[in-house]
């Protein structure tokens, strides 16, 4: 069975894909129908113009996705983007052109990143991505020549040490930290994760996911005026930013584990997440992969967080919600949860109330989890190449 046939065999309900054109105008519906018929009707002849036609639909949908706030984009528009991305992947594979598999995989990844799961074909895109990945040649091995560790600046911050617990019982954690919303470093809780032994070898990540397209933050941190985002393959990121930290890049706050389920098999949801403030809410699981020197500026999240350090070292400075006014949050709707104060070098003339803020601090080593209660401010700095996983739940 050729690759196109294998992709079509993944479809659980073909009518769902065809119905997505209802979200398009009349002209684009006709264009989509032509591309759809090419993929699914026998005897159709490939023409280069098919790629231009399917791209015209994706360009239209891309504009729709970027009009207004992302949270307000209708799920049907995102699902249509998913369907059209899958059709484009079929067209690319049919072309037989050089790099067709790599280009089709990139197309599927964009569908995963910008689209939404379909109702009756919910696993279609992840299965298609796995099929493409399996058919690609494996990369040659790389070696990390040096392991640099930046000096800690935690001594410049006056504050209390975050309590350290060794694999506490759920009952103890609940009574002493979860209920009162008080941070803690939890040790010896992830030694059973396959990720602990697999992920420190960058070749494992390259072989499993090197060709996958991921969003990378470029710049010192997201609150910096020169900060930007760029889509690139994980391989490009590892070579250009992770192994060569002179150009700072960060795979940050990305749901890598839904995009690449094979990586999800290497981790486990901590039992502590069962202590939910809302019933039936699964944690949001995000990846944080980057070189030494990456920074998440002082900010808070609206959910409880278990920041889990698979490898590498990070230092964290925290403040309780009662100190919010003393940290001078940015005004406006975009950065309202980010402070203007840098806890390592506070400008006390500009931010005089900071003098009354009470900091907490800790060093997060490989194998540690940091419990960050909801709405607690935290500033995170990587001293080494690091891979962290955050579990946000409420």
From TrEMBL:
GO cellular component terms given for this protein: nucleus
InterPro entries given in the database record: Cupin_8, JmjC_dom
Localization of this protein: Nucleus
Chain ranges of the JmjC domain: 258-394
Main location: nucleus
A GO molecular function held by the record: metal ion binding
Keyword terms of this UniProt record: Iron, Metal-binding, Nucleus, Oxidoreductase
Keyword Hydrolase: no
Cofactor(s) demanded: Fe(2+)
Entry-linked PANTHER family: BIFUNCTIONAL PEPTIDASE AND ARGINYL-HYDROXYLASE JMJD5, HYPOXIA-INDUCIBLE FACTOR 1 ALPHA INHIBITOR-RELATED
Protein name: JmjC domain-containing protein
């Amino acid at each position: 069975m050729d690759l196109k046939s294998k992709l079509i065999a993944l479809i659980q309900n073909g009518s769902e894909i065809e119905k997505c054109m209802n979200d398009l105008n009349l002209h684009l519906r006709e264009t989509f129908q032509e591309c759809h018929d090419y993929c699914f009707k026998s005897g159709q002849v490939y023409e280069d113009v098919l790629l231009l036609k399917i791209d015209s639909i994706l360009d239209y949908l891309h504009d729709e996705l970027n009009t207004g706030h992302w949270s307000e984009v209708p799920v049907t528009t995102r699902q249509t983007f998913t369907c059209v991305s899958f059709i484009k992947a079929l067209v690319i594979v049919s072309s037989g052109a050089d790099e067709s598999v790599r280009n089709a995989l990139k197309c599927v990844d964009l569908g995963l990143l910008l689209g939404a799961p379909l109702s009756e074909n919910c696993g279609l895109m992840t299965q298609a991505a796995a099929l493409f990945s399996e058919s690609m040649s494996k990369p040659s091995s790389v070696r990390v020549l040096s392991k640099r560790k930046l000096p800690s600046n935690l001594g410049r911050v006056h504050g209390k040490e975050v309590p350290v617990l060794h694999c506490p019982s759920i009952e103890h954690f609940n009574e002493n930290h979860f209920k009162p919303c008080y941070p803690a470093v939890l040790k010896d809780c992830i030694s059973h994760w396959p990720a602990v032994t697999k992920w420190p070898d960058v070749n494992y990540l390259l072989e499993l996911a090197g060709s996958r397209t991921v969003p990378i933050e470029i710049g010192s941190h997201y609150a910096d005026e020169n900060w930007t985002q760029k889509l690139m393959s994980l391989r490009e990121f590892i070579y250009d930013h992770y192994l060569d930290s002179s150009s700072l890049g960060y795979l940050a706050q990305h749901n890598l584990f839904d995009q690449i389920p094979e990586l999800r098999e290497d981790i486990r949801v901590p039992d502590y997440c069962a202590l939910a403030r809302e019933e039936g809410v699964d944690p949001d699981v995000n990846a944080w992969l980057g070189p030494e020197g990456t920074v998440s500026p002082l900010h808070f999240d609206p959910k409880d967080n278990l920041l889990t350090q698979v490898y590498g070292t990070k230092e964290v400075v925290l403040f309780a919600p009662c100190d919010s006014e003393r940290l001078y949050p940015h005004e406006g709707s975009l950065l309202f949860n980010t402070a203007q104060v840098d806890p390592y070098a506070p400008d006390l003339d500009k931010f005089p109330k900071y003098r009354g803020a009470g900091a907490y601090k800790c060093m997060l080593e490989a194998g540690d989890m940091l419990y960050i209660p909801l709405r607690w401010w935290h500033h995170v700095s990587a001293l080494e190449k690091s891979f962290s996983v955050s579990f946000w739940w409420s």
